[in-house]
Amino acid sequence: MQSKNVTWLIRLFALGLPLIMLLHNLKAYFHHCFNNNDLALYSEAILRMGNHFELNPFLSVRGVFILNDHFEPILWPVALVVRLLGNSVITVMVVEILFLVVAMEFWWWMHCRAFRSSEYYERTFDAEEKKLVKLVSFLLVAVAIFFCKGLLLALTFPIHPSTWSILPIAFLVYFTLKEKLLGIVVSAAALCLFREEFPFAVLALSFYFLFFGKNFRTFLAVGAVGAAFTIFDFGLRPYLVGPIVGYGNGLVTSLLNDPLAAIAEGFSKFNFSLFSIYYPFILPLLFCVRKNFLPILFFLSPLLLIRFLSGQHNFHYAAPIVATLISYIIMSGLPVRAGAALVKREKVAPIIIIALLLFVGSGISVYTKAFKLFIGGKQSKCVVSSEKSLASDRLFEAVEKEKIVSMAASGGVTPRLLDPTIKLYHLGGYIPDEGVKHLLLEKSFPANVWPLQESDLILIQKACSPYVKRVIIDDEFYYFAEGDFPFSALHLVQGGKK
Which of 97, 389, 423, 468 could be disulfide-bonded to 406 (CB atoms 3.0-4.6 Å)? Predict the structure, then answer.
């Protein structure tokens, strides 16, 4: 088989990552293994934007306008794409996977460019050896991506713009290391559309160009992008959309009031499980870090500080950081040099193997859980059975027949209930003062009803029983009823607190 064909096979192997995660997510979605947060939140925003062409829709499952919660205008073009492909939660999941697929293709392109720019590779090996080095290096990149725990955790927590941000981050790293001003400015501006934390990273990057890059023009251009988005996000946005949710206020206040206590708290939240997201990158970075890592370090510093102080590394939080590191490692040419070292059986070869095994060891647990659900039907957060599937089919047939105006539901089932024409509320979250006309509770446990528990749902059902007009379904798995359910009964348990 020709080397070109083998490299394509390796690329297809790496594409197994988004495919496996998509299949896992679809099965988890249909068996109600995901919670309301954040799948239902962003899906409702995207579906309402696409269905009603609202720029800042009110999210009934969260009780907030989406742009008042986070500034993520990337949702607008995503909503347009979802509208064209089919306005559904499943389409949103597919679009999220496409962000990763495009980012991976760009990483492959960066890797190929590293080959063409490697004088050592061109000078040292003959034609046959070059083919072997290319195959080995492609395999190294594929394994690192396939087992990157930060990416895997993000993909098993759909849907989130922080996960999508890996695409503009890959472009930003490339243009930064190539010192292409227009590319830096465009990719930095694009990145700032994904979340309000990224302007801080762009601002930090601009100071690299001032103090170390010695490029005042680039400093002004990149700094202007970061400053403009920061001023808009935190200064002008409240005047345009109303009061915003201040997620960072507590972090900033605690850091300014008692920095030592804030740092100590950050360390207390960090554990080996979180460290396993990052430790596979230690050895590669030791071998490839050069002076050109400084702009990457400047860019990452605000993101790392936010993650450290908040203790948030799981789910989608680590994706931007690991995407930055993967982009830098590929751009540095390390996979080319590592492939050459393995082919030549140099002394460093065992260290390369160890680094590879660290990636595998870090990410394999995510695949183990995914395969347990997908093949074995085992999940710690939900019941997966044919009986439940039949009960779910009956439930959604009943939901479709009902003329539902407003409904409160437990967290595991809310993502699948989303409909732009229905006001859907999350039990344990926001409930309107006027109450709702339909109530849906999950009865089989385990169930992903965070922040509530099984006992909380039993209390809610009991409190709502005097207001029931008609019980539509009451079986082993679901309780679905029509009535005039007041705020006082639905809000009996809020966020797991009675």
Answer: 423
**CA–CA distance from 8 to each of 105, 294, 313, 468 (Å)?**
11, 33, 33, 60
Q: What tens digit of pLDDT does each residue of 356-386 get?
A: 999 999 999 999 888 888 776 777 788 888 9
The number of beta carbons lying within 10 Å of the beta carbon of residue 384 is 19
Query: Which is nearest to 320 in space by CA: 200, 228, 211, 222?
Result: 200
Count of helix runs (H) and strand runs (E) in the chain: 27, 7
Q: Residues 296, 332: contact at Cβ < 8 Å? A: no
Pairing of strands 478-485, 64-65: unpaired
- End-to-end CA distance of the chain: give it in Å, rounded: 66
pLDDT digits (tens, 9 = 90+) for 84-113: 998 899 999 999 999 999 999 999 999 888
> From edge to edge, which strands make up the β-sheet containing 423-426?
423-426, 406-409, 436-442, 478-485, 468-474
Note the pLDDT tens digit of each residue in 297-312. 999 999 999 888 877 7
Residue with tokens 């105006």: 405
Q: Contact, 491 vs 465, CB < 8 A? A: no
For residue 71, which phi and psi values (nearest 5 degrees)?
Answer: -95, 100
| Cβ-contact 437, 405 below 8 angstroms | yes
Beta bridge partners of 313: none
Amino acid at 253: T
Q: Which residues pair with 413 in a beta bridge?
A: none
Q: What is the pLDDT of residues 396-454, one digit of tens each?
A: 999 999 989 999 999 999 999 998 888 999 999 999 999 999 999 999 988 889 889 89
Cβ atoms 134, 115 nearer than 8 A: yes
Alpha helix positions (H), 383-453 = 386-401, 414-417
Helix or strand or coil: residue 375? coil
**Residue found by looking up tokens 């934007």 in the block:** 49
What is the total residue count of the chain? 498
pLDDT band at residue 251 under the 50/70/90 scheme: low
Q: Which two tokens stand for residue 218?
A: 């680039």
As to burial, measured by CB atoms within 10 angstroms (0-12 exposed, 13-18 middle, 19+ buried), residue 96 is buried
What contacts 57, CB < 8 A, 6 or more positions away?
A: 44, 45, 48, 49, 65, 66
Residue the block writes with tokens 């396939």:
146
Could you state, in order of their start, the residue ranges of all structural domains in the chain?
3-33+88-374, 386-490
CB 67 within 8 A of CB 193: no
218 contact partners, CB below 8 Å, separation of at least 6: 179, 181, 184, 206, 209
